[in-house]
Design goal:
This protein is mainly α. Helices cover about 55% and strands about 5% of the residues. Strands 1-2 form a two-stranded antiparallel sheet. This is BlaR1 peptidase M56.
Length: about 90
Amino acid sequence: MAIFPFILLKSAKLKNDPEIINHEKIHLRQQLELLVFPFYTLYLLNYLINLIRYKKHDLAYRNIIFEKEAYDYETDLNYLKNGNWYGWIKKM
């Protein structure tokens, strides 16, 4: 979980998982793009709308625009270096 400016992990072994770390770093950048607090507001709002739409937590979570970007690019370890700012907008 990314809570600016920290990445919180369930276990120490996840520190060595580059995809998990990249996924969470993408969230940190999203938080910066929206000046942190608005990110959390939009994240929650998008989740609630998705929950009404899909009626299932997992589907609602996976279809949050911020999660779509993070999951789509978590394996691209150069994604953040390439300057792909506001990539979540394309997931709307």
